[in-house]
Amino acid sequence: MKRGPTGTYHVTRAGGEQVQAFAPAPLPPAPALDLGDGLQRSLEAAVLALGRLDGLSALLPDKALFLYAYVRKEAVLSSQIEGTQSSLSDLLLYELDEAPGVPLDDVVEVSNYVAALDHGLARLRAGFPLSNRLIREIHGVLLSRGRGSGKDPGEFRQSQNWLGGSRPGEAVFVPPPHTLVPECMGALESFLHAEDDGLPVLIRAALAHVQFETIHPFLDGNGRVGRLLITLLLCHAGVLREPLLYLSLFFKQHRPTYYELLDRVRRDGDWEAWLSFFLEAVRETGEGAASTAQRLSDLFRLDRSRIEAAGRRAGSALRVHEALKARPILSMSAVCRVSGLSFPAVSSAMGLLGELGVARELTGRRRNRLFVYTGYLSILNEGTEGS
Length: 387
Hints:
Fic-like fold, 5 strands, globular
């Protein structure tokens, strides 16, 4: 449905130029959303995929291990959308105090994303409301180190920003003037807490994401916070018990469509086209996450059975296998510490895992060697290759 512009334009100045800044009207949309048969079916399919994913999370034998790796994959993908070149391997090496294969600023940004998500989830689980204060806290963690640390972490912007173009006059989109940001974000917070408008949680998340991206309340990090907001809202509403749904891969794979639909909402008020895209993203991503969890579970079980078939050599190798399940890249000393085995025992076990093709050495060094759980990292890396 085309409703016309979903906000008002305000003449302001940025970078010495006069620009038209767009301030969105408060949610929900008016006229009301048209959730016809097509969108209803899409909503039902997305809810079903989420339900299956949530049910699977309760059955995973190694839920904490899956969450550890899956959250890091999301951090890599969300940061890649913003232009970083960091890979999952780079992040895991950085967490081991090993030098990543990309500029340090790139991997620090990804590491900050993991910390920001962890902070938000911990606050929600402690009973803190999903609010502007929490959004600012998350932003503060996200920009606490590296690039962006000088762009007012944890504070709404006090100047005009713009999207696309080398200068404001060439911008693809100009968000509201900074003087209107508190008002716009206050209205968004009220919408997040509304219980009397009859909107399903997934629809609320879809609308809130667009609204946040339109307001662009921070000088930097808006895209990453906006994507985090989706997962936090679903966890806060109890739709997901664990943070297992991330849409960054879908948005990355369909980037031109994603940006075009955001513009159509602002320009034409076509919320329904955006909702159709968003619900498909939830369905496909939910099914993909469930498939990944099942494949990893199958991989762990198969590799364990292959190790057990090695007879007397299997005991130590199984303990090393458990260590690599928890952290798919590890140094020999870290494996010794985690497994409680001696260095010679770990060295022998790694030899067996290498023979079986379960693990391989990364560095080519004779000392301070690093080992990777090959199949595990291969599954997790899917979709993170390239920008």
